[in-house]
Amino acid sequence: MSIWFSKEIVGSSPTWFANLWRNIMSHEEFTKRFKQRVEHADHITVIRALKISRPTFYRWMNGESAPHPIGRESVFIALDGVGL
Predict the structure, then answer these.
(1) pLDDT classification of 37: cutoffs 50, 70, 90
(2) How far is residue 62's CA from residue 58's CA, in Å, rounded to a whole number?
(3) In which domain, by residue range, is 68 found?
(4) Distance of CA 6 to CAs 1, 30, 56, Å?
(5) Which long-range contacts link 13-22 to residues 24+ away (Cβ below 8 Å)?
(6) pTM greater than 0.90 (yes/no)
(7) Which of 45, 68, 79, 80 is most buried, by the most CB atoms less than 10 A from its CB?
(8) How many domains does the chain contain in total?
(9) What would the DSSP string read from start to end of the chain?
């Protein structure tokens, strides 16, 4: 499936894609923010809210892995949605 963007959406600048990636958080920043947000929360609540497995939760907490860069901010939006 291809995604096409019109000039009205992304502008005419050839650097729009580079600008998009510039604003995406790093793996290290994700790990730091994730730990801060969930360290005092009930882990099961977090796992259910994010619809992730326990191993994924612990990999994220330990910095062993992180969601795809484009999806990292949505993790925190989902946590906001459940009051964490």
Answers:
(1) very high
(2) 6
(3) 25-81
(4) 16, 31, 36
(5) 21/69
(6) no
(7) 79
(8) 1
(9) ------HHHH-S-TTHHHHHHHTSPPHHHHHHHHHHHHTTS-HHHHHHHHT--HHHHHHHHHTS----GGGHHHHHHHHHHTT-
Residues 6+ apart with CB under 8 A from 21: 69
Q: Count of CB atoms within 10 A of residue 50's CB?
A: 20
Q: Considering only CA atoms, which of 79, 83, 82 is closest in space to residue 30?
A: 79
Task: Give strand ranges (E) for 10-57.
Answer: none
Burial (CB < 10 A; 0-12, 13-18, 19+), residue 60, is buried
Average pLDDT, the chain: 82
The reply to whether 2 falls in a domain is no
Angle at 8 between CA 71 and CA 68, to 5 degrees: 10
* In-domain check, residue 62: yes
